Amino acid sequence: MPTTSISTSTPPSQPTQPTPPDWSAQQYLKFAPERTLAIHDLLSRTLPYIPTQSPIIHDLGCGPGTSTSALLAAVPGAQLTGMDSSPDMLARARAVLPGVDFVAGDLATYAPAAETDVLFSNAVFHWLRRGERIGTLVRLFEGLKSGGVVALQVPDNYDEPSHRLMRETALNSPSPSPDPDTAPGTPAPAAADAPWLPYFATSGIGDLSNPSRPDLDPIESPREWYNALAPHAACVHIWRTTYQHVLADAGAIVEWVRGTGLQPYVHRIAEGDEAARRGFLAEYERRLRGAYPALADGRVMLGYPRLFVVAVRK
What we know:
alpha/beta, Rossmann fold, DNA polymerase, domain 1, 2 domains, seven-stranded mixed beta sheet, 11 helices, about 35% helix, disordered N terminus
């Protein structure tokens, strides 16, 4: 992608970065019905390959238990384990499903028992960097017994306006999608009016070789996923779906992504620097209004592509 620059001649020194807070189950669940659509689509393509009525299923990146609940409803005889790295998410999941075993874990190092029948993953592999994402999946897949199933979906939206504008706003880069209420060609706010800039001055946004940057890596092509799994698989199914979520306005898009991809950006700004946080979010929302024009009823449509993979072990 083209290199973007900060629109200030002498950037201030980079502030000390705070320790990122935990995920928020409450924020994530604000759009639970919309987020659940992909879970059920993935589940519908997985069920035909589950070999028994009482399978051992590990829900990788179980979050607040939404996907685990869907699995339990579809396969009531399953022996379920939910795994997540977030204490807040796990607390919510345990409250909702007290009879299910939920464990803290890191996807990159997690090792389910060899007798596991299904590894199910709703929107977690995209948090891994490209250097370890497919390698982690192959390691988990190779560990399954013959007939075992891996089923996953990941958001595939690196180039969508919702995510491109995160990067451009953080760097105060000119945007090709101005607010419709602003005259065409109006520049981004001056550096003095962008108090969030010091927090992103050395963040490496857009540099795919920088593992500490707040933006996530682009998702690999379907061909790459297939080629990695095919040598170990009896079958591999890959498809891509773009969901069209109708939301109230650009502010609702901000609230949606605050529960996911926007979190690393917000976390990078010191918790006590409310002016910087408010300014960043306000400018991001301004740019979103230009990228997502109002529908006939005043609402907006958020296109949200996701990549799905279902594979059965040889």
